[in-house]
Amino acid sequence: MDMFTTLLTKTLLMLLITGSMAGLIVGVWMLFRPQSFLRVNQFLSQWHSTRKATKPLMVSRRTEHFVYRHHRPVGLLILAGSTYVLYALVYYYDRKKLGAAIFGDAYFAPLAEWLVPGLTLALGVGVLFAMGIGGFLLIRPSLLKGFEAWANRWVSLRRAGRVWDEMHEGPDRFLIRWRPWVAVALILGSSYALIRLSVFIR
């Protein structure tokens, strides 16, 4: 776990250093070669809508016919899997070991003490719910018709995400208007970040 923490820390450090260097380069470019920067920015600001690419994900796909046609094998699989998980929770659950496996370092022990019981409770409720679904599918699937009608309501994300699928030119207009000041802020901020991060480079 210590090796993983060290690797993760070094990776984050390299990402921060790379981002700071990129910010410094872009700031200098904006300040001393504004015309070429604005041409590249205009080229990169072309709009590509994601609506066509994500359309297959927004189509409702019904699986009820398959489930009801093979309700006994499906119910048996769900019941067996949920029963195994419940058995493991009852006989092998150890909060301290589970917290150490998820969070590792003792630094996160207070978080583990608070979070692990909640996750375990949520898992237990989910397992019991799955056992009920598996039992109904195995014995009497018609009892799930009401729940199925409620759960199969289609909620499209396209309308909710429409604001993210429109081009917003405000940042570009701000950048063009205040370009020298943005460039100076990028140079100063990136230089400061690089100086502070250089302490961690060995």
Would you kindly provide a brief summary of this structure?
This protein is mainly alpha-helical and 202 residues long.
User: Approximately what portion of the residues adopt beta-strand conformation?
Assistant: under 5%
**Cα gyration radius (Å):** 27 Å
Largest sheet: none
In whole angstroms, how far apart are the ends? 21 Å
Summed up, the helix count is 11
User: Oligomeric status of the shown chains?
Assistant: single chain
| Helix and strand sequence | HHHHHHHHHHH
Shape, principal axes of CA atoms: flat
Low-confidence stretches: none
Number of domains: 2
Specify the helix fraction band.
over 70%
Account of the 3D structure:
The protein has about 200 residues and is an all-alpha fold. The chain has two domains: about 1-40 and about 170-200, no CATH class; about 65-150, no CATH class. Helices cover about 75% and strands about 0% of the residues. The chain is built from eleven helices and no strands. Helix 1 packs across helix 2 (about 35-45), helix 5 (about 70-90) packs antiparallel against helix 7 (about 110-140) and helix 6 (about 95-105) packs across helix 7. It is flat, with a radius of gyration of 27 Å.
